Amino acid sequence: MKIGIFSPNWIGDAVLALPFIQFIKQQNSSSKIIIICKDWVSGIFENNPYVSEVVSFNNRKLNGFWNTYKTGRELRLKNLDIFYTLTDSLRSAFILRLSSAQLRIGYDTQMRSFLLNGVKPKPIRPIHRSRKYLDLISSYDSSIILPRINLLDEEVEWGEKELAKICDTKAVALLPFSIAPNRTLDRMTLKNWIHNTNRQYIIFGSNADASKANQIIDFCKGTSITSLCGKYSLRDSIKILSRCKYALATDSGLGHIAAALGLPTLSFFGAGNSQITAPKGKNADLIEHCSPCRGPKCKNNRKTRYCLNEISSSFIDSRVKNITKS
Length: 326
Prior knowledge:
By secondary structure, the protein is of the alpha/beta class. Helices cover about 35% and strands about 15% of the residues. The chain folds into two domains: about 1-135, 3-Layer(aba) Sandwich (Rossmann fold), CATH 3.40.50; about 160-325, Rossmann fold. It has helices at about 10-15, 20-25, 65-75, 90-100, 130-135, 155-165, 185-195, 210-220, 235-240, 255-260, 275, 315-325, and strands at about 1-5, 30-40, 55, 80-85, 105, 120, 170-175, 200-205, 225, 245-250, 265-270, 285-290. The strands form two sheets. It has a six-stranded parallel sheet, with helices on both faces. It is globular and about 60 Å long.
């Protein structure tokens, strides 16, 4: 049997889909699992032991009616028996219908139910996104929901050697950028956290983040910081990131990747909803802060959220110490 899974389009969501892929394979051990995704998230699924094939498309192939139509028709060649969509879009359901898969499963969103024949009602209450994906399966083991990105031994070795070219010791990964500007950690906040330390830091991000990374480096003169923004593919960045000492991350796709690698990861959530999109990992911790800052008008009693402007480097060190011990 061949089972297709239409991946979420964002990196963080793609990472949170990994438990779903694992359970689908465990329920259908002899089946071939085929991931259909946009090319910028394909690195998440490479060398995954539960995945038989990754079919990736660039944005143009999924842009506009005619390109979407052709893409869906192309998938007929895969002869899928079951096809899941993990996105809520009408476009993905249209692609499932065009693929001629016998069973097409997804949530009843955007009036797309007529394109699916395995429609599931959308959860009424907000739940974590990884569990939302898993709820498409009739039964699953809810005790194991941690995403895990698999690296081959040779990938780990390459990451170790590449990191050694960049710095002398294990560096701390800085993942300050998000697709949403209000979730990005500003340079003053970062400077308050990392100045007067002898640690080496590496900023990870996309090519679009390169100029912002250089601004952080200029602003934090005297601190050893290297930017890798846009210099490596996503998969190669994952290899290097896996060999770092720990990660300080904002609410971002790279934060999810770090946690899924098992890297000690301290994530800072302000604008995002951690109940829905918090990173999952055995060595992951979360600090929720107010966003935006209300300054002197703030009435936060700090029972649930910290003031981002008052989080100190020593406080971060203590939280990191806890997760590096685990």
